[in-house]
Design brief:
Elements (H helix, E strand, L loop, with lengths): L4 H8 L9 H5 L27 E5 L4 E5 L1 H6 L10 E3 L5 E2 L7 H6 L6 E7 L4 E8 L2 E5 L4 H8 L12 E8 L2 E8 H14 L7 H19 L1
Antiparallel strand pairs: 1-2, 1-3, 4-9, 5-6, 5-8, 6-7, 8-9
InterPro entries: DUF5947
Pfam families: DUF5947
């Protein structure tokens, strides 16, 4: 899943790319509207949007779209567009009872202490990514062990495929686990991509990561 244009630009540390949403819009209305600047417009209808906006997942295209609120609400019904587009939920939940052994973690091949996993419906399997200085990096190892973890955790089974993820942070005494919208994961990727320095990242990036998780916890309580 690729992040939306604004988050993708942050993750790659470059200005947002120019997008052409007209082709997508024609699938629904056949019309053309005046376009705003890249990163400031809905990628479905080209209406102007602010920095705080909703996202849709293009399931077949493995990417996220920045959208205005009306376009977002069109796809909150799971049957809309036959599942091609899905609204990214806005709920955050902590999973305090989550358990994962060190051996299970190591079999996933995650070289850092941060990772997110979600079910990719067109592939019929879970995929695992971790933030790195180069962006979101996918672990290509067998995730059979993760399937066992999900089978034993009812909260993980509630995640909506393609649009909700398990966000993990490895700690000295276990794992911090949150169930979050997929766009939150790409926000974390952007933080790491933009602020990582040297081999260990530097104090600034870890401070920003701490602040990010503080926000995730706060939203989970809300």
């Amino acid at each position: 899943m690729r992040p939306p244009s604004t988050l993708r630009a942050l993750a790659q540390n470059k200005p947002p790319p120019v997008v052409d949403p007209v082709a997508v819009l024609r699938q629904f209305t056949g019309g053309v509207r005046e376009q705003g600047a890249p990163g400031e417009q809905c990628e479905m209808c080209t209406a102007r949007i602010g920095p705080e906006h909703s996202h849709l997942a293009d399931v077949e295209g493995h990417r996220l779209l920045c959208t205005c609120r009306p376009c977002y609400l069109l796809f909150t019904d799971g049957g809309a567009s036959h599942g091609h587009y899905r609204a990214v939920p806005e709920r955050y939940r902590a999973n305090a009872d989550f358990t994962l052994s060190t051996a299970q973690w190591e079999t996933m091949g995650i070289p850092v202490n941060l990772a997110f996993l979600f079910y990719q419906s067109d592939q019929g399997r879970y995929v695992a990514f971790y933030p790195s200085p180069g962006g979101a990096t996918e672990s290509l190892l067998d995730l059979a062990g993760w399937d066992e973890v999900v089978a034993g955790d009812a909260r993980l089974q509630e995640l909506v495929p393609d649009v909700e993820a398990v966000l993990l942070r490895r700690l000295d005494n276990g794992f911090e686990c949150h169930l979050v919208p997929i766009d939150a994961c790409y926000e974390l990727v952007g933080i790491v991509r933009q602020y990582w320095e040297g081999f260990a990242g530097g104090e600034d990036v870890w401070r920003r990561i701490d602040e990010f998780f503080d926000g995730v916890r706060e939203r989970g309580r809300g």
